[in-house]
Amino acid sequence: MKKTQTDIINQLIEDMGMIAQGDGMPRIAGKIMGLLVVEVGPYSFSEIAQRLQVSRGSISTNTRLLENLHVIERVSKKGERGDYFQLAEDPYSKLLQGVSQRMEKSISILQKTRDALPKDLQQSQARIQDLQEFYIEYLKSTTALIGKLQGE
């Protein structure tokens, strides 16, 4: 049986929810992201809640999360009172910028820890250094990807 366009779109939305959940985020956040990626917005809280068949409270919580990650943005429509949401401009590099900031913080924490630990804890020092080097390389890769996404 051939899938309809609606079936394909609905499957992507569901799959994005599962991907988000696998990454430790709420499934609803992924579904909102999937909706805003595949369909033209902006959408109101009510429209998103109705489309995804979830509560407005859940939509509120998860749109706030996605806004904080700079993946979606809150906009207004002329003549309308409510808030609307759409995919942010350049959302993927903004998402990676947040990752980069967390990597920089991790590198700093690990360096402070290495400096504070006694040097005779060689195994601990070595494992912390390995983790720090991992984060440094991860940060380099992420920075390069951000540049590529931004056309640099």
Distance between the termini: 45 Å
Low-confidence stretches: none
Q: Structural class given helices, strands, pairing? A: mainly alpha
CA-atom Rg in angstroms: 20 Å
Largest sheet: 3 strands, antiparallel
Oligomer: single chain
Helical proportion, percent range: 55-70%
Count of discrete structural domains: 2
* CATH topology-level fold name of the largest domain: Arc Repressor Mutant, subunit A
Key terms for this structure?
single chain, 2 domains, 7% strand, 152 residues, 6 helices
How would you describe the overall organization of this protein?
The chain has 152 residues and is mostly helical. It has 2 domains: 5-87, Arc Repressor Mutant, subunit A (Orthogonal Bundle); 91-149. It contains 6 helices and 3 strands; from the N terminus they run ααβααββαα. It has helices at 5-22, 27-38, 45-52, 56-68, 91-116, 122-149; strands at residues 43-44, 72-75, 84-87. It has a 3-stranded antiparallel beta sheet. β2 (72-75) and β3 form a beta hairpin. α3 packs across α4 (56-68) and α5 (91-116) packs antiparallel against α6 (122-149).
Question: Can you give me a brief rundown of this structure?
Answer:
It contains six helices and three strands, in the order ααβααββαα. The protein is mainly alpha-helical and 152 residues long.
Topology:
Blueprint: H1 5-22, H2 27-38, E1 43-44, H3 45-52, H4 56-68, E2 72-75, E3 84-87, H5 91-116, H6 122-149
Antiparallel strand pairs: 1-3, 2-3
Helix pairs in contact: 1-2, 2-4, 3-4, 5-6
